[in-house]
Amino acid sequence: MMIKRPIFVTGIGTGIGKTIVSAVLVEKLKADYWKPIQSGDLDDSDTANVKSLVSNDSTNFHPEAYKLTQPYSPHKSAALDGIKIAFESICIPKTNNQLIIEGAGGLMVPLNDNHLIIDLIKELDAEVILVSKNYLGSINHTLMSATILKMKGIPIKKLIFNGEEDQSSEKYISQYLKIDYLKIPHFHELNRKSIQEFAQHFQF
């Protein structure tokens, strides 16, 4: 039985830094990690990357429900692999530890003809870490992501800005959403040591 509500790490788009944020949280909380769907990069998967960045001995890395060979949206990757993602087959792993779940892309990424990533979050009854990154257009993408989560009744546990700082954007988003935020800086050297040192002082 789960002793804590799972935490689902999602982003405002692709390439936002969900895997780095997941690694920091896994190290900080000594949590378990699960990537339900890996789409492409099977030789350099997000699970393998997080595993390479985590130092603690408590984390269990749970196997993916789907490992798709092509680097596209899961529904397209699955179709190219000749399969269809069965939503009901994605079952949360059993653990007594805190579980960090990393999504694929953003909230509205399709899994099949009827389900999106946000539907999976709802089904897993998870709290959300929303990862944002500062770039032209990121205010719009962050506010839209937060709005759709609110519409679906999914709580945002934390908003995390990953990478280079932009105080103007961060302040506006925080004030508009009436939510505090945390920051994870750009790592000049991304390895176990840098993640461990940062996680020790990360106020989560």
Report on the architecture of this protein.
With 204 residues, this protein is of the alpha/beta class. The chain has one domain (7-201): Rossmann fold (3-Layer(aba) Sandwich), CATH 3.40.50. It contains seven helices and nine strands; from the N terminus they run βαββαββαβαβαβαβα. The protein has helices at 18-29, 46-53, 74-80, 117-123, 138-151, 167-177, 192-201; strands at residues 7-11, 32-34, 37-39, 61-62, 66-68, 99-106, 127-132, 156-162, 181-184. Helix 1 crosses helix 7 (192-201).
Element order: H for helix, E for strand: EHEEHEEHEHEHEHEH
Principal-axis shape equals globular
Assign the structural class, choosing from mainly alpha, mainly beta, alpha/beta, alpha+beta, or little secondary structure. alpha/beta
**CATH architecture verdict:** 3-Layer(aba) Sandwich
What distance lies between the first and last C-alpha atoms, to the nearest angstrom? 24 Å
User: How many DSSP H or I helices?
Assistant: 7
**What is the CATH C-level name?**
Alpha Beta
